[in-house]
């Protein structure tokens, strides 16, 4: 028995923030952002719209696509670094609002790798026989931790959510074939939000130092991202004796088009096989893979039988990959 993705869903808030809008906030230009990142626009929540609001809409779509009732969900895992509040979990809030009263619920914090980490947890619960239907949601309100005065970071991130329903399959050659997860905590200060937790709790001085916002050493992150993403894809294929030619689509974490082009080049993988949406949504952290996955499924690119590789890297540092025969 294997786990398999039974349905996908996604949601992005309505407000579009273009590069021209950002030119009004910081010293930047549309041409710099497009050339250096590939991003043209991103979405931003309305006032009062929170992580659970985006996540629940993506979840409802995924449940409908999987033809599963919320009452039949055994577990909800939410991957996020921008949950509604530190306590309780965003998964609990979504469990109540979905009416998934039987479901256990918890959040996973693995930054941009959160979706693949959560998928791996879902896979383990299903293969162990403990649960039948796991709802995996990745939802991020990156605008809530974005410093709109810092041009190095504010052009990169966006808000959005994606979700999948993970269930069982008895079919030999379908489903989630494997997942690999990695972390290197030595590099934890490369991308971080220093304040708001127990090391720098909310206080006037914490706010004055702007510690509630994302800090990133972009250039160093870039180089490590290229290396780890390449390794992650190779590691994903190796146990199955699959080659680059076997991949129908790589669905990568969407951080920077230059990272993805460099990875494609190193792997000898045509960019036509790389699912991209960062031009429209920017880096939505954990949400970026399920958002891209859902779009590709709905567009009919990913079909039953397609071989899909997921690959992510992010704060922690974390990196992760997975192989799915759709
Ligand atoms: N507009 C205009 N200029 C900008 C800018 C912006 N939005 N952001 C940075 N710059 C400037 C810098 O200040 C620097 O100027 P200087 O040479 O006068 O000091 C110059 O552009 C080059 O900066 P650098 O950081 O070397 O640029 P880069 O080519 O590495 O691109 C990133 C910056 C952030 C786009 C790139 O490093 C990146 O994408 N890194 C990975 C980030 C990532 O993936 N993070 C998420 C992980 S999940």
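Sequence proposed for the structure above (326 residues):
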């Amino acid at each position: 028995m294997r786990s398999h993705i039974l349905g996908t869903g996604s949601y992005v808030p309505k407000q579009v923030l273009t590069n021209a809008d950002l030119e009004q906030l910081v010293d930047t230009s549309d041409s710099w952002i497009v050339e250096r990142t590939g991003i043209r626009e991103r979405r931003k929540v309305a006032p009062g719209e929170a992580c659970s609001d985006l996540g629940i809409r993506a979840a409802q779509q995924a449940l409908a696509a999987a033809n599963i009732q919320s009452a039949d969900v055994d577990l909800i895992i939410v991957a996020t670094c921008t949950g509604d509040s530190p306590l309780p979990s965003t998964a609990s809030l979504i469990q109540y609002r979905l009416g998934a009263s039987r479901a256990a619920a918890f959040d996973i914090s693995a930054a941009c790798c959160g979706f693949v980490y959560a998928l791996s947890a879902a896979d383990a619960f299903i293969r162990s026989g403990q649960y039948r239907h796991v709802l995996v949601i990745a939802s991020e309100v990156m605008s809530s931790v974005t410093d709109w005065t810092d041009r190095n970071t504010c052009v990169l991130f966006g808000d959005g959510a994606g979700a999948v329903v993970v269930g069982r399959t008895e079919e030999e050659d379908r489903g989630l074939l494997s997942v690999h997860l990695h972390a290197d905590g030595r590099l934890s200060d490369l991308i971080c939000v220093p304040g708001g937790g127990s090391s720098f709790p909310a206080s006037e001085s914490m706010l004055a130092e702007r510690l509630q916002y994302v800090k990133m050493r972009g250039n160093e992150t870039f180089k490590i991202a290229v290396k780890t993403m390449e390794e992650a894809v190779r590691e994903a294929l190796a146990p199955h004796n699959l080659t680059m030619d076997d991949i129908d689509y790589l669905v990568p974490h969407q951080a920077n088009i230059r990272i993805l082009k460099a990875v494609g080049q190193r792997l000898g993988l045509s960019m036509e096989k790389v699912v991209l949406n960062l031009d429209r949504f920017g880096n939505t952290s954990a949400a970026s893979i399920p958002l891209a996955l859902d779009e590709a499924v709905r567009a009919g690119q990913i079909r039953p039988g397609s071989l899909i590789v997921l690959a992510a890297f992010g704060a922690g540092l974390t990196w992760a990959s997975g192989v799915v025969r759709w």
